[in-house]
Structure formats: C-alpha cells, structure tokens
Amino acid sequence: MTNQLTEIRKRVYEANISLQEHNLIKFTWGNVSEIDRQLGLIVIKPSGVAYDKLTPENMVVVDINGNVIEGDLNPSSDLPTHIELYKAWPEIGGIVHTHSTEAVGWAQAGYDIPYLGTTHADYFYGSIPCTRALTEEEVEHSYEKETGTVIVETFDERNLNPMTIPGVVVRNHGPFTWGKNAKQAIYHAVVLEEVAKMNRFTKQINHNAKLAPQYIMDKHYLRKHGANAYYGQKEKICKNDK
Ligand SMILES: O=C(CO)[C@@H](O)[C@H](O)COP(=O)(O)O
Q1: Is residue 75 part of a domain?
Q2: Residue 58 lies in a domain
Q3: So what's the ipTM on this one?
Q4: Domain Class II aldolase/adducin N-terminal, which positions (predicted)?
C-alpha cells in the first residue's frame, strides 16, 4: 500500500504542477486528484496551498467519503465535487478543476462549448455541456457536493457519456475535466481551454457559425478512440499523447 500511495502522490503532485506549465491557473485556483479504486483512496491537492509549496508528501489522502487518511493539511475545498464524480462514474480515475479564462467565459455566459471543428472532435465526441446554475438551497446545503450532483444530472438528463465527453463547464463557475488518470484529465483540461478559445474566435468572426457535421466528428473521434482506433503509432512513443 505504501508504495502504491507513493506513486499516486507523485503523479498527483506532478499533475497539479503541470497546471502552471499549461497556463491553466492563477494563484491557487485549481486542483487535481486521482483515485485508487482498489485501495478506495483519493489523493488530492491541499486547499489554498501555493503551487511552489507543493510536494508529493503534502498531497492529501482521503477515503471515498472525504475522511482524511494521511496528511496534515486540509484537502481541496472542491473535494466533495471530485467525490461525487468518482462515485457516479466508476470508469474515471483522475479529475481536474481550474478557473481557466476561456472555459470560464463559456460557463459565465451559460453556453455549451459547441462542437465546431476537428480540434474538438479529436477528444470530445460532442459539444461540451454547460450545467444549470445551482439553486440557493443547493449552495446553502452543500455547495461543492451539489456541484458534483449537477454535473452528473446534466450528463444523465442529456444522455451524454462522460467517457466520450470528458469535461463540462459548471454555470457561473468553471471547467471540470476527467480521464482514466490525472495525466489524461490534464490533457482534457488543456484541450477544453484551447477549444473554448478557438470557439470564441469563431463566434466573433461569424456568430452564426453552426455545429460541424457528424461525419467529421465520427472520423476524428473514432480513429483516435473507437474500437478500431488506428491514429498515430502502434507503440506509444509520443510523451504527451494519450
Ligand atoms: O472556486 C474555488 C474557490 O472559490 C476553488 O476552485 C479554488 O479555486 C481552489 O480551491 P482549493 O483547491 O485551493 O481549495
């Protein structure tokens, strides 16, 4: 167990640090977690701690109910949202939350990030949904937990698959992305932010720009992620590829 936790602490630390490299955060406005489903433990960034003060050792280990198992620091305030997503979607293994500017723009506007082209379709098999706003009661009751509930509700109501659309923007708040592990969730956070930016430009040039055709989405998404995926190399030789 100790060795496994050492590895996961290191991965979660590196993923958190990479948020800065990818220019996805300012100050401490973001967090990354990863779950080990065999151990039933989640490792997450400590709340409000500056990125230059992070170490693998000060990542916080909690159980699936949020009880701190290892660590002296409080876990991220967004932990209850991460927990709701891990509970609802057993296939996911890592989660990223940021307040990245372009994604927050769509969240604050209350719009889905529409599928407009191939950059989007390479990683998201459909428009990236924007949730409804939380009610006053939900915010008062259990704000971060209800944030997770509203994300799951959005995917359920629209019959969306979180494994093929690995991200969301929460109305008036910002983006959450996920993946099989923290590294893949980071990859999706970077793509989501870039697509949000590209789409803003597109809409500025032509505010009537329409969704791109389904057959282009099928070609791009399925050749990378479909049952008969063939894109790239047989061996994974590209460090940043998924
Ligand atoms: O939106 C918020 C706080 O309002 C959070 O997402 C913070 O930006 C990050 O919180 P910690 O992970 O440091 O608790």
Answers
A1: yes
A2: yes
A3: 0.97
A4: 10-200
Specify if 107 maps to a domain: yes
Distances in Å between the alpha carbon of 116 and those of 113, 119, 125, 220, 227?
9, 9, 11, 13, 24
| pLDDT for the residue 233 | 84
Distance of CA 2 to the CA centre of its chain: 27
In a domain, 130, yes or no: yes
The reported pLDDT for the residue numbered 238 is 52
The residues of the chain scoring below 70 in pLDDT are 1, 235-242
Q: How many domains does the chain have?
A: 1
Closest Cα to atom 2 of ligand 1: 29
Mutate to test the pocket of ligand 1, among 12, 25, 28, 42 (most ligand atoms within 8 A of CB): 28
CATH of the domain at 52: 3.40.225.10
Please give the mean pLDDT across all residues of the chain: 95
Q: Which residues are catalytic?
A: 122, 231
Q: Which domain holds residue 118?
A: 2-225
- Cα separation values, 106 from 1, 2, 30, 102, 141, Å: 41, 41, 17, 7, 26
